[in-house]
Amino acid sequence: MISDSANQAPASVAFPKNIKSFVKRAGRTTTGQAKAFEVWGPQFLLTYAPEPLNIGKAFALQGQDAAPAPVILEIGFGMGEATAHIAKVRPTDRFLCCEVHEPGVGALLKRIGEQDILNIRILQHDAVEVIDNMLLLASLDGVHIFFPDPWHKSRHNKRRLIQTPLIAKLAARLKPGAYIHCATDWEPYAVQILEVLSAESLLQNTAGKDQGGYAVKPDYRPLTKFENRGLKLGHGVWDVVFKRV
């Protein structure tokens, strides 16, 4: 097991005893998604193990370990629409993606196969355990967390993913100069995200005060159908991008 001081939540922080990066959701895996598991799963699905991940072997092609390249961790990719897009516009980066929702994993595998995307690997496992046990300190070049569950009701806010303990874990695993990019369409959560990341001493905001602390949407993050529909209805979207100092 990889151990560091960031794995212990401060006593003053209200956080679930067993941190989870997900909530189990109902959903039916389609025939196409099931077929994608069968055809593409062996190449693009990784098996969780409580030991450091060998990135070269994980992204190996034709039996040859992959050459060094930037590694981006994505936590919770939904149905994989944005993930597939980003992987295609950034072909020299590797994307290690965590999602437990089976239809979503199947959907991304289907996109990978249909679009011939080679720089994605998927761990169908709780991202917190992946971070704790498989990722070395200062091993990541970036982290993406797009539209995590906002848990709208105040009494459920403690279930939100982006809180002090998790950000401490992630910051410790970023290389100097690496980034963490979060996006949400729920303004109260955007405020919390900005506060949590601002409080982490290892991170520095890339946005100026004149921007209110929020970043201009990076070009690589696409507008999903859901997001575009919300924008047309007047709903806001907030991007928060911090870098490791």
Give a count of the beta strands, DSSP E runs of length 2 or more: 8
What structural class do you assign from the helix and strand content? alpha/beta
Helix content: 25-40%
Taking pLDDT < 50 over at least 5 consecutive residues as the criterion, the unreliable ranges are 5-17
* Overall CATH architecture of the domain at 136-245: 3-Layer(aba) Sandwich
Query: So what's the overall shape?
Result: globular
Report mean pLDDT, rounded to a whole number. Answer: 89
Radius of gyration: 17 Å
CATH hierarchy class name of the domain at 136-245 = Alpha Beta
CATH homology-level superfamily of the domain at 136-245: Vaccinia Virus protein VP39
CATH topology of the domain at 136-245: Rossmann fold
H/E series, N to C? HEHEHEHEHEHEHEHE
Distance between the ends: 26 Å
> What's the total helix number?
8
Please give the structural blueprint:
Layout lengths: L30 H14 E2 L8 H4 L12 E5 L5 H9 L4 E5 L3 H14 L4 E4 L3 H8 L5 E7 L17 H10 E11 L2 H13 L3 E3 L19 H8 L5 E7 L1
Parallel strand pairs: 1-4, 2-3, 2-5, 3-4, 5-6
Antiparallel strand pairs: 6-8, 7-8
Helix pairs in contact: 1-4
